Amino acid sequence: MYKSKFKLFGQTGFIVALGLFMLALAVGLLIKAITTGQEVRTVILVGVVISLGLLFIWNKILTEINQITITDSSIEIVNVFTKRKRKIIRQDIKGFKDTFKNGYTILIVGHNEKVLAKIHDYYYQEFIELRENLGIKYLERVPTFWNKLIKVESNH
Question: Looking at the keywords, is Membrane present (predicted)?
Answer without folding.
Answer: yes
